[in-house]
Amino acid sequence: MTAAETTQDGSGLRVHDLSWSARGTVIVDDVELTAPAGRITGLIGPNGSGKTTLLRAVARLARPDRGAVHLDGSDVARLRRRELARRLAVVEQHAGTDLDMTALDVVLLGRTPYRTALQADSGADRALALDALARVDMAGFAARKWSTLSGGERQRVQLARALTQQPGLLVLDEPTNHLDVSHALSLLTLVREAGLTSIAALHDLNLAAMFCDHVVVLRRGRAVAAGSPHDVLTPELLRDVYEVDADVGTHPRTGRPLLTFHPPAASQPPAPAPSSQEDS
Ligand SMILES: Nc1ncnc2c1ncn2[C@@H]1O[C@H](COP(=O)(O)OP(=O)(O)O)[C@@H](O)[C@H]1O
Ligand SMILES: [Mg+2]
């Protein structure tokens, strides 16, 4: 599916001319982007390029100066809070979570938009939450206090909460930054299998290449490229945007782009000395 196809029936996420500034400095500059329905869109770009700010504006956590966000044809700015929470779930980099809550309590927050204020959690809500904890490999942590969880465990609990919210759009800000390689791969596999429209800021470009169907590149607040990983992740773009020297090959199993980065020429480390021991 191409980004252009999404715009025809209004499904998926569409961001129009979005701008956000802080004290006169433009941080997100007139961004136009689409995220195809049911696919993962990767938002990439160097540190400080505006990824977090853009995602916060998409999720209505920051009010843009200008522009609009449409989700499956609805203007996000016009949705009531509760409706917004049913349609869109966010996994922020640093969730401001009550330290005394248990992991299960945190996941159950995902059911809040479906309950009235005084309604207790139903058995069905708990079943959904426990299932989501199991899906992020945190089944044994239901009763653990949030304050005792590691960064990676918190990230997985937050994803479980977001999935329990059963949203149309999943907004993820560096969802794998605290995760070891195995948990990073399984978290992104889980997001892919959830089949939701997802937009994720990702630092690891090889993970973006492997899991994203569509990639949008930010540089100094502007969207400078968008398309399939194959079309976008070229040595030219990586040099331009990240100022790195990279080779782009093909992943032997997935057929996706596989990036290899080279140290700057002036600081080439010496080759490791050959080992004196035979491989055993
Ligand atoms: N509230 C704010 N006030 C001033 N500058 C901000 C504010 N929020 C973000 N910025 C600046 O905007 C730029 C983009 O930040 P951010 O969106 O966090 O980038 P990224 O997520 O791509 O690393 C950074 O230079 C950051 O310092
Ligand atoms: Mg960020």
Automatic annotation (TrEMBL):
CDD domains reported in the protein's UniProt record: ABC_Iron-Siderophores_B12_Hemin
PROSITE patterns cross-referenced by the UniProt entry: ABC_TRANSPORTER_1, ABC_TRANSPORTER_2
Matching InterPro entries: AAA+_ATPase, ABC_transporter-like_ATP-bd, ABC_transporter-like_CS, P-loop_NTPase
Keyword vocabulary terms for this entry: ATP-binding, Nucleotide-binding, Transport
Disordered: annotated span: 253-280
Molecular-function annotations in GO: ATP binding; ATP hydrolysis activity
Domain ABC transporter: 13-245
Protein name: Iron complex transport system ATP-binding protein
Species of the source: Haloactinopolyspora alba
